[in-house]
Amino acid sequence: MRFAAKHVQRGGGSSNLADARAAAPCQAPAQLSKYRGSRLFTNRSSQDGFTEIGTIVRSLGCCPSEGELHDLLAETLDSAKRGFLTKEELIKHMTEEGEPFSQEEMEEMLSAAIDPESYLIHYKDYIATMVIDEN
Amino acid sequence: MPAFKAAVLIQRWYRRYVAQLEMRRRCTWSIFQSIEYARQQDQGQLHEFFNYLVGHFTPSSHHESNILSCMLTEQIHPQDLELETCGDYKAIEVPANYTGPRLSFPLLPGHATALVEAFRLKQQQLHAHYVLHLLHETRRHLAQLPNITRVSSCYGKELTVCGDLHGQLDDLIFIFYKNGLPSPERAYVFNGDFVDRGKDSVEILMVLFAFMLVYPREFHLNRGNHEDHMVNLRYGFTKEVMHKYKIHGKTILKTLQDVFCWLPLATLVDEKVLILHGGVSDRTDLELLAKLDRHKLRQQDPQGWPVLQGPLQCPLGSPGAVPAGTTLEVERCQQRAGFPGVQGQEESLPSASEGDLDAGEPLGPTQEEWQQVVDILWSDPMPQEGCKANSVRRAGCYFGPDVTEQLLQKYNLQLLIRSHECKPEGYEFCHNRKVLTIFSASNYYEVGSNRGAYVKLGPALTLHIVQYQANKATHTLTMRQRQDFTMTGFQEKVTLISRVEQSALRALREKMFAHSLDLLREFKKHDKGKAGMISLNDWAVALEAVLHLGLPWRVLRPQLVSSSVGSTLEYSAWLQDLAKDWPSRENIQSSLLETLYRNRSNLETIFRIIDSDHSGFISLDELRQAWKLFSLHMGITGTDDCICNLAQSIDFNKDGRIDINEFLEAFRLVQQSCSGDTAFGHMQDSSCGGSSES
């Protein structure tokens, strides 16, 4: 599961808690305190030199909700309101726009998102499966 | 909304999900590791207990001295063993209806592969006759080998190094089938810890020893810290042998004690790559290690017996000094403890030792030698510079990158390959890529917890690492080459993480349950107003204060606390809720139950030591005595009757003998081995079956 950490390093990942707080302003300070006193990230020499803090920041950062995401995809990528995206459309957008995905990230996202029979991405269903319980 | 912005949001959402998954995985890993470390601390307690016995306890009755004598003299004199094992296997008849593999010596490659096939496909067990014969031949072979095996690689030949296997036969079979069976062109080094924890330690040993006899120049074994009798008592190997070989198990175990002591300590490839099980210290001396008599280090588990079988503190040659590691030393300790009838035993020592004494040479290992070996079998690397005592394992040290560098320079080496620690990816580099940890037991903590790996040394000592993960339910194996990235589906990963998480959480809940009283006390400290409630923050602080696990309690809270009003918790109710998962015994008070849970590992070890013939039974008397001693040391009072009543109620046929497993089972104290099978088996069929191999 290196992808997240890799990306943060490329985008100028933080190397200490203070920087992390600055990078993820919205709810991060309170949530970061959850890790206070834990040994989750001490004494680890990550062999590829990635900063551990990037993962925490990533996991706490602001992002759209499930509903917002669905609308986002519908409005910007699926203007014809088909209810799905083709593999090519998604790849193009994720690897060429915004903060582009790496090939690994793209492949991994596709592996869960693509419906093996139709070879399309029914994004409503996909988003629904990718929900993690909020605290 | 511009496409750019939309893309960013989508990407952020996805990456957050992936990161959260990673957080969960790390949390789970953290739980397993901290519980494992806590177990190691347990062993330290046992060591203190035995020290206490030797130092302070004077047996007041014949009974007590018998128990102590059992516990303090688990020693067999090497001379006796030779005579015993020579005749042993010949006397054992193989029944005509035995359909398992048959070995004849000298072993041929076909025999070794037949063993693998028999274990893999037909799940057969090798008959004790062949086991003992194989062990006998193994011992003979090992005794000729130096302490440090020197290997040269050459063009056209591969050398593969594997780490801990811990009784997981699936992983060994996978390695042979994916990498190829051992042959003159395919050399192997297995870096210790072949046994304990997993359920097929015996079969692993049989296969490894067989291949070693068939290809003595290409197949090499290093000793690990688990190739040790005392460790085996605690971690399951002894139990496995006795379960599989009810009649001859004891002989097999005795023989193995000897074989383990003859295992080489390290392997050196091309004078450049040093392979050993644990690590090094700032005083590691390869020349000394090469010269010492490794066979004399019989019990090198310092946690169980350092006072008795490690060297004495007073220097050799001073008056009253007794050669270390001998029966003499044990008896000196017994005298101190006030055992009657010890004088008689001294006379029966074989004359060989007296002869040696006369020559003025030390009989056993010196303090220095003992420490050198313990260091290489038990140490762990750390990121900080320096060298400090390994407080978790209570043996060996933590060594920093400067220690590694110093050692590599001193002996003109390029790389240190070691094992000893489980890694999520099956391997890990550290110390500037000068140290490689390789661990070959996949799913070590739980199904899905980690990958296994092995490393191939190529020309110019280049490294190629191969990772894998055994899927026990479907008997398929997923493999991932480090260079070409092949992955299982994302959903499978998620499911796997969830499952491992559940297992870790259960282990954690059990630990919390075992400390209920201490937790209650700690919670009350935070509840000055006696409202019965504390804040969630105080809950986290209290948990850490009692358990010392270093876990992110606030992150774990949603999975550990189901009911909280706002940001406060009714702690008594929560503790009662915890207790629901564990059996309650009407005749045992909860505090005693807790004590038993907390000390179950030590108790089990003590019982198994007392059960010196490994029958699986101890007498009611012995149990009572052992409990009395243990509770005295632990400061537990007023429980003797309780324990005895319980023991008596378990003695179903009233013959005064207690089945150790049943006694422990009564409190569900016995660890389940490979418990992943039933819970996860059917689910894995559907989700992980599609994993690809390349």
TrEMBL record, chain A:
SUPFAM superfamilies: EF-hand. Residues 1-20 are annotated as: Disordered. InterPro entries: EF-hand-dom_pair (IPR011992). PANTHER family: DYNEIN REGULATORY COMPLEX PROTEIN 8. This is EF-hand calcium-binding domain-containing protein 2.
From TrEMBL, chain B:
One of its GO terms (molecular function) is Hsp90 protein binding. Its EC number is 3.1.3.16. Its cofactor is Mn(2+). It catalyses: O-phospho-L-seryl-[protein] + H2O = L-seryl-[protein] + phosphate; O-phospho-L-threonyl-[protein] + H2O = L-threonyl-[protein] + phosphate. GO terms for biological process: detection of stimulus involved in sensory perception; negative regulation of MAPK cascade. Residues 598-633, 638-673 form the EF-hand domain. It is an enzyme of class 3 (hydrolase). Keywords: Calcium, Hydrolase, Manganese, Metal-binding, Protein phosphatase, Repeat. InterPro entries: Calcineurin-like_PHP (IPR004843), EF-hand-dom_pair (IPR011992), EF_Hand_1_Ca_BS (IPR018247), EF_hand_dom (IPR002048), Metallo-depent_PP-like (IPR029052), PPP_dom (IPR013235), PPP_phosphatase (IPR051134), Ser/Thr-Pase_EF-hand_contain (IPR012008). PROSITE patterns: EF_HAND_1, EF_HAND_2, SER_THR_PHOSPHATASE. Belongs to the PPP phosphatase family. This is Serine/threonine-protein phosphatase with EF-hands. It comes from Heterocephalus glaber. The lineage of its organism: Eukaryota, Metazoa, Chordata, Craniata, Vertebrata.
